[in-house]
Amino acid sequence: MFRVAHKIKTYREMRNYSQEYLASMIGISQPAYAKIEQGKTKITLERLKQISEILMVEHLHLLDEVKVAIQTIQINNTSPSDFVEVLHPDLKIVYEKLVMTLENENRRLIEENERLKILLEQKSGRY
Is the Magnesium keyword given for this protein (predicted)? Predict the structure, then answer.
């Protein structure tokens, strides 16, 4: 998590934001935020998303281990489950939550697509 914490700090400094400002934006104290940047506090996916939005950076960019592993999977033609096994334990949890979120969104979109197909068929049958 240290690399993630370091990246968060680097982007915060690039934006000239203080720790106090970022802490207030995400609803925590400055000392609690400082622990995030020091890598002393585990960061949740939701918290990472909050911080990345304020810093105007894609949250996955803060997790470059994910990017490198995905590229490795593409190069080696291995399965995503192989990728999960090589992640740092903290990143593994974040990745698994992200995959679950994306799978749920995919299911929702498939269902919405089916619903829209039915509506389109019903409307075209009326005319």
Answer: no
